[in-house]
Amino acid sequence: QRYFIVRESKTAAGRNRAVPISKKTLSFFEFWLSQPGKYLITDDYGNQLTYHQYRTRFDAVMTASRCKHTPHECRHTCATMLDNAGANETAIKRILGHASQGVTKRVYTHKSLHELKKAIDLI
């Protein structure tokens, strides 16, 4: 179906939302989902990672690749790439799990999963 549902998030706008999977990254998601457990990113036994465990792994990858970034910077990169590719502003906000700022956009503008997939495939 090329999407997953975010069930847990820091904000209400981030919870229970469909996040499209880019065609370019689909094979990675298929691999991760074929692993034991019900979570996308897990330990070797299929258990959900704590933020500390996830961050330790992320930081190890950054060290090995001689990069200095944080997981949150990935969100900025995604937003910038979507914007540069001409993705719809509402689709960008929905993909990132941001609440829309205007009443019209928040209440009356809707993006289907198809439209979100189209946006993510721009990058």
Q: How would you describe what is shown here?
A:
With 123 residues, the chain is mostly helical. The protein has one domain. It is 47% helix and 7% strand. The chain is built from six helices and two strands. It has helices at residues 26-33, 51-64, 71-84, 89-96, 103-108, 113-120, and strands at residues 3-6, 17-20. The chain has a two-stranded antiparallel sheet. The two termini are 19 Å apart. The model has no long low-confidence stretch (mean pLDDT 86).
Mean pLDDT: 86
Q: Let me know the largest β-sheet.
A: 2 strands, antiparallel
Q: What spatial order of strands do you see in the largest sheet? A: 1-2
Overall geometry comes to globular
User: Which stretches are poorly predicted, pLDDT < 50 over at least 5 residues?
Assistant: none
Helix-strand topology string:
EEHHHHHH
Could you give the distance between the termini?
19 Å
Question: What is the CA-atom radius of gyration, in angstroms?
Answer: 16 Å
Domain tally? 1
Structural class of the secondary elements? mainly alpha
User: Beta-strand level of the residues, as a percent range?
Assistant: 5-15%
